[in-house]
Design goal:
The complex is a heterodimer. By secondary structure, chain A is mostly beta strands. Chain A is 0% helix and 52% strand. In chain A, strands 2, 4, 5, 6, 9, 10 and 11 form a seven-stranded mixed beta sheet that branches. A four-stranded antiparallel beta sheet of chain A has the order 1-3-8-7, with no helix packed on it. The radius of gyration of chain A is 13 Å and the shape is globular. Chain A starts with a strand and ends with a strand. The model of chain A has no long low-confidence stretch (mean pLDDT 91). Chain B is built from no helices and eleven strands. Chain B is an all-beta fold. In chain B, β6 and β7 form a beta hairpin. In chain B, strands 2, 4, 5, 9, 10 and 11 form a six-stranded mixed beta sheet that branches. The chains are: A mainly beta, B mainly beta.
Chain lengths: 116, 111
């Protein structure tokens, strides 16, 4: 089945620094990938939709200059949290929609970001 | 506004005690309702997709059903390994096929 690999699984960074999270589709091509954020005991909140070769579409209230998304190939999307602050600490999860499949959204294993 | 609501928020069952989880939705255009299982610190794991009212799907001890306004996830004779958070999500009839998730039900099955 379709597999999405997400790295790193956890990261600790200092306030003011930037962190990059990678999301790779291992055995399929994904024209569309989704980035979610999840706070403890809460559900997944969609942050943005990234499309290969074009600009990402951000959800209302998500700062596009803070959360930079790049989807340069059909198998890789990256999320960069710029100038991170403690309130950015959260669980970030990516998802991909395999090309040609009607459903079957595949999720990565998530990245736990802690900003100190 | 598109909304997905799950109940109960948390559920504790004894092993073998069957129950149902509810997912109610109000969306402008539905293109599928999804059920996922999420273990702590992990990404969601796909369980089912339902497309039309009256549709049912089963997998081991789980059975999902769909009406025009809600979906149920029935758990028959649960085991401790069924303990997890169960999420439902709806795919909207918009360009990017994004999912809107419900709040989730945290299930704990005690031996």
């Amino acid at each position: 089945g379709a597999v999405v690999s997400q790295h790193p699984s956890w990261v600790i960074c200092k306030s003011g620094t930037s962190v990059k999270i990678e999301c790779r589709s291992l055995d399929f091509q994904a024209t569309t990938m989704f980035w979610y954020r999840q706070f403890p005991k809460q559900s997944l909140m969609l942050m943005a939709t990234s499309n290969e070769g074009s600009k990402a579409t951000y959800e209302q209230g998500v700062e596009k200059d803070k959360f930079l998304i790049n989807h340069a190939s059909l198998t890789l999307s990256t999320l960069t949290v710029t100038s991170a602050h403690p309130e950015d600490s959260s669980f970030y999860i990516c998802s991909a929609l395999p090309l040609g499949e009607g459903d079957g959204y595949t999720f990565g294993s998530g990245t736990r970001l802690t900003v100190v | 506004e598109d909304q997905v609501t799950q109940s109960p928020e948390a559920l504790r069952l004894q092993e073998g005690e069957s129950s149902s989880l509810n997912c109610s939705y109000t969306v402008s255009g539905l293109r599928g309702l999804f059920w996922y299982r999420q273990d702590p610190g992990k990404g969601p794991e796909f369980l089912f997709t339902l497309y039309s009212a009256g549709e049912e799907k089963e997998k081991e001890r789980l059975k999902a059903t769909l009406t025009k306004k809600e979906s149920f996830l029935h758990i028959t004779a649960p085991k401790p390994e069924d303990s997890a958070t169960y999420l439902c999500a709806v795919r909207l009839n918009t360009g990017f096929q994004k999912l809107v998730f419900g709040t989730g039900t945290r299930l704990l099955v005690s031996p």
